[in-house]
Write a structure and sequence with these properties.
2 domains; seven-stranded mixed beta sheet; 18% strand; 12 helices; two-stranded antiparallel sheet; binds zinc ion; alpha/beta; Aminopeptidase; 15 strands
């Protein structure tokens, strides 16, 4: 919003779809490079630009492009410019990203919708069965109760733990801003919890509610689960643990629409919609070149640069791993950028800082 006499400042924001995720990154890289050229400063290293436009739809061609251009893409380090800086506004160097896989679940009730008065108390309700199944997956603190869910995790190194302990803790302020009374995690903070695998319910659906509600026993209930993975987890193994858990709750698990014979035989049925996923990757904090990047970013800021072993979000870093590339993520966007939602925005101060950060990295010796 503009007020009389006001000119643009660092707290102004540009509102547009993908303004922060990920046009801001692209512009910070290009403008940072242009600033070096304009001021006749030579980059200290050879630079290759690589921009991918399909990340939001799962990067269907990234692997093919990367693997088909091994020689052209040979490098010492990839700098990825995606995601937000720390909530404190401090610049951040992120050494890895979580893996990700989604799982679709459909639970079945009677074959056609039934009058809830005539058949309630007798016909099984799939919404209730799904709710019970989902409730069995976590305890009251949000810890996943699926057997072996945390077993494969490779623990953080001493250096990574030390870096985590220096991450500013803004949990109380963020919680206040988001208006909820108690956080999950049994007392662990947000940065610690991001370094663990997670199980989220992205959404659930069964018949209609509110003004559209009818007095029926629905025929199906659906949910989509989102599993985030950390180093050591394998996405297929993680899904298999969920499937075993569902079986242990007494469900027959199928990947097809159940047949009449199956419906007649099994009291509880789940149809699983398989998705492909990918694993987490993490670059070592001991890598000298990575620490040089931290020093370069630090030169552009009076505030300490936050170093984190992984971002909470996911990136298909495994694709770069296939050509033995080492990756570091240096984000520029403000944390409250509303990415993937309405009113997405980039704070101008973050965009300017991002240009400076990228230029500093390009001047590595
Ligand atoms: Zn995104």
């Amino acid at each position: 919003m503009m007020q009389a006499g006001e000119t643009s400042g660092p707290d102004w924001r540009l509102y547009a779809r993908s303004s922060s995720d990920d046009k801001a990154g692209v512009m910070a890289i290009l403008a940072g490079y242009e600033a070096l050229v304009q001021s006749k400063q030579r980059p200290g290293v050879n630079i290759k630009f690589f921009f991918e436009g399909e990340e939001e739809k799962g990067s269907p061609h990234l692997s093919e492009i990367v693997e088909g251009n091994r020689a052209l893409l040979a490098s010492d380090l990839w700098i990825i410019c995606d995601g937000p800086v720390h909530q404190s506004g401090q610049k951040q160097v992120v050494f890895g990203a979580r893996g990700d896989v989604n799982v679709g679940l459909t639970v079945y009730g009677p074959k056609r919708p039934l009058h809830s008065g005539h058949y309630g108390n007798w016909a099984p309700n799939p919404a209730l069965a799904l709710a019970q199944l989902l409730a069995s997956m976590k305890d009251s603190t949000g810890r996943v109760t699926i057997e072996g869910f945390y077993d494969d995790v490779i623990p953080l190194t001493a250096k990574e733990q030390q870096a985590l302990s220096r991450v500013p803790n803004l949990d109380a302020a963020i919680q206040k801003e988001l208006s909820f009374a108690r956080a999950d995690g049994g007392g662990q903070n947000l940065s610690e919890l991001i370094n663990q695998p997670s199980l989220n319910i992205n959404g659930m659906r069964s018949a209609n509610v509110g003004a559209q509600a009818a007095n029926v026993i629905p025929t199906t209930a659906e949910a989509t689960l989102d599993l985030r993975l950390v180093l050591g987890n394998d996405w297929e193994r993680q899904v298999a643990k969920v499937v075993s858990h569902i079986r242990r709750q007494g469900f027959f698990v199928t990947t097809q629409e159940p047949t009449d014979a199956e419906r007649a035989r099994y009291p509880r049925i789940v149809r699983l919609t398989p998705h492909t996923g990918y694993n987490a990757e993490r670059t070592s904090m001991d890598l000298p070149l990575a620490q040089e990047v931290v020093v370069a970013v630090q030169r552009t800021s009076t505030q300490p640069v936050v170093q984190v072993p992984t971002s909470g979000g996911s990136l298909p870093l495994h694709v770069f791993k296939k050509i033995n590339a080492t990756t570091l993520t240096v984000p520029v966007a403000n944390y409250d950028n509303n990415q993937h939602a309405e009113n997405e925005n980039i704070r101008l101060g973050n965009l300017w800082d991002g240009m400076e950060t990228m230029a500093a990295i390009m001047q590595l010796k």
